[in-house]
Every structure is written in C-alpha cells, then in structure tokens.
Known about the structure:
This protein is an alpha/beta fold.
Amino acid sequence: MLPRPALPVALTSTLPLFSPLATVRRRSSVAAAGMAGVSAAPPAASQIGSFLSKKPYAPPSWASHLSLAPSHIFSLGQFPTPIHKWNLPNLPEGTEVWIKRDDLSGMQLSGNKVRKLEFLLSDAVAQGADCVITVGGIQSNHCRATAVAAKYLNLDCYLILRTSKLLVDKDPGLVGNLLVERLLGAHIDLVSKEEYGKIGSVALAELLKKRLLEEGRKPYVIPVGGSNSLGTWGYVEAVREIEQQIQLSGDVQFDDIVVACGSGGTIAGLALGSKLSSLKAKVHAFSVCDDPQYFYDYVQGLIDGLQSGLNSRDIVTIEDAKGLGYAMNTTDELKFVKDIATATGIVLDPVYSGKGVYGMLKDMSSNPAKWKGRKVLFVHTGGLLGLYDKVDQLSSLAGNWRRMDLEESIPRKDGTVIKKIPGLEYSILVQRAATEAVYFHSFYISSAN
C-alpha cells in the first residue's frame, strides 16, 4: 500500500496552471506570447457553436518550417487541459511531479487521440470522405474516440478490432470502449491476433477500403492510434498549449516530460515540439507494447515525414514498460493503479498511463540521482474505459463495502423512536410506510382540488 502523501502545497504565490484567472487572462497572454516569440494559438473552444466547428490553423512559429501543416482543423477536444501538481508518494529528494490531464479532453472523446483526430478528420472531410476506417485492439481507446468523432462529423465508422482466436467468432460484448462504439452504430469487424500478425494493420485496412470503394463509398483510412505524420501535429500543438500555460503560471518550468507510448504519434509530437520550442524539456516514453528499438524507428519515420531534419534518439528516451504484453497486467500493476487512486485521487488506465507511471516511479526508485530535484510533467493520456475490461482482476483489489450497521433504535420524523424488537420492527416500518402513503395521497388530492 502506498503511504498517504502530504496535502498539496498551496500555489497562492503563483498563478496555477489551471486557475480560472488564467482563463480570464488568456486573451492578453496570446498577445504576450507573440512578443515572447511564441506563436499565438487559436483560442480555446468556448463560444456557442465553436465546438465541432472547422477553424483555420496556423502552426507555432517554431514549427512553421515543418511539412504537412493543414490549413484547417476541427475543434473536437476541450482544450486547454489542466496542469496541476501531483503529490505522488516516495519521490526522490526535491523532485516534483505535475500532471497534464489530457484524460479531461472530453468524456466520450477523452484522451490523447482527440488531438490527432482534430487534424486527421479535417483531412478526411477535405478529401470528401463519407466514412473512416481504423484499426486497434478489442478495447482500443483510439477506435472508440474515432467512432465518436466520426459520428459528430456525420461520417460512418468502420473498426477492425483485434481479439483472441477463441473469441473472434463470438459477440464481443458491451464492455468498456465496445459499449460506446456499438451504441454509436460503428461497423465492427473482428480479426484474430494470429490473422492480425500475419496480414498486418495496413493490409487489413486496405482490404476493407477496397470493399467499401466497390460499394460506392468514399473511405478514409486512419492508422493505428492515429499515428502518422499528420496526426503528429496534434502533440506539436499540445506543446504550444503547454508553453502558454507555463507563461501564465509565471515561474513553473519543466525539466522532463513523461508519457506512455502505444503507437508513437504522441511521443513524436511531444519530443519534436519540446526540442523546437522554448520548452526544451527531456521527453521520456514508456512503451506499453513494442520494443524501444521499434519506436525509435517509427518515430523517426514520423518526424522525417514532417521534414524535421532531427534524429529520434536525440529528442526522446524510450524504455520498455510492456510487462506481460499489450493490454495485459500483472496483479502488482493493477494494485499500483488502485493505490495511486487511493493516495492521490487520480485514476490511471491499466493499458497506457498506469504502466507509464509504474515505469516512471520504478525508475525513480532505482535511479534517484537521475531525477533528484527535477520538475517532471506527466501527460495522462486517458483511456479510463479500459478499466471496465479488468473488473475481474480488480475485484479483489478494490475498496471494501459493508451493509450499514443500524442503531438499536430508529428515529421517526415525528420525533418518536421505533425500538428494534426482533420479528416486529419490519411490520412496524411497513405500517409506517403505509400510513405515510395514505397521508401523501390525501395531501395530493386536496392540493389538486
């Protein structure tokens, strides 16, 4: 069990990164950002009708040389997401951990996928698509977010979901992300992990695209996790958002950014943005599926697609945190998620952020000198619906419950007391309920007349 952390330190001497005052000052800060060499970002969606609308996009000045910047995006998320201090227990001496709550970017659309989809779905609509195709695991957060965003924009959604060989011919159920997808009417095709491994996500999507084209549809393919070079812009833009929040705070600077990595686009955008912007924080990624070498190569492809001229190994450090494998958890990992929630009030998902924080704190414990005195920003990428897929494993770890222990006497509304006499208290309470029912019925009739 993690010890209870100290109460949060009051931030009265500075402007908190999620302060309402920060929102009030946003307009003036945008102008100040330009003076400070930071491009002014489009204002957060706040006016009636701005959510789900198409809006012009201009990249940050420090990213204006990159390729594939679109002229417009769709407003799909609730941005900016808050940043606040996170009082994790057992940190190295002088180390502070803050958390960026991208899990609060929306309800159905929550998580890091929303930032990528703002760019990807804008491209889909610009190309005249009437439906989108994407691929993921049976509890893919990305697939759920894509299904919601597509429906918002009046596009049909086709999902290719990977599951076990034993379940590929069965109803996938209504658990977690699947419940949202199926309520939305997303078209779901199941493939086994063996089929997925043999054919690959790109070929599977192309196969479905071909069939839809033959039916006269106009499909747009979104890669696994929304992680291509265009989707990378989502977290380049997130860095601009962090920059502006830092400027509003006055004196908070981050030495490190930590995030879980599942498909590569989020870490590519964060690492590229941090390197090019004034942030200059070291980016650490904890991979929850493939090995670090795979992600170094994949991130390299993404930033090459933006013609960044940078080397992935120079801008991000990637460590293995997959444990038993993607979307698989040990009892210790799930207990960790439960203990963090109990200690801090922050609920982590078991697939991404749970493993990311688990890996981060494990590294801090093993290498305290590496983290001593540093200010660390952890990006919570959402995915809480994935917890519903772990209820069987979590049932023995979750908080206890009990039946309420009633007193020996039960006070009545009129001030008298019903004594608990074995065998009689039930009949007395039934009589009382019947009497009150007659009273309220009579009151209703007289009031109506």
